[in-house]
Inverse folding.
């Protein structure tokens, strides 16, 4: 009789721990899913930022070309006024 009572207590403890661990496991899975969503969003934002950076670099290069062309034309105008 004592042996059965100990077995029941052991089973109850194991069932309780099993339930607790399942709950904890689900919480951890939920957190991992949330972390994965943040990670995916972070990667997307990095890609978007790199795209914007590339766009700005192209615009800066275009501006520099326009600026060089401007100074070349300005020099031509200054030379034509002198001569």
């Amino acid at each position: 009789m004592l042996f059965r009572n100990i077995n029941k207590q052991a089973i109850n403890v194991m069932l309780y721990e099993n339930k607790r661990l399942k709950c904890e496991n689900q919480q951890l899975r939920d957190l991992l899913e949330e972390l994965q969503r943040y990670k995916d969003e972070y990667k997307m934002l990095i890609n978007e930022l790199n795209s914007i950076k590339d766009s700005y670099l192209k615009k800066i290069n275009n501006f520099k070309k326009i600026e060089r062309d401007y100074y070349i034309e300005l020099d031509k105008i200054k030379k034509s006024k002198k001569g």
Summary: Helices lie at 2-82. The chain is about 100% helix and 0% strand.
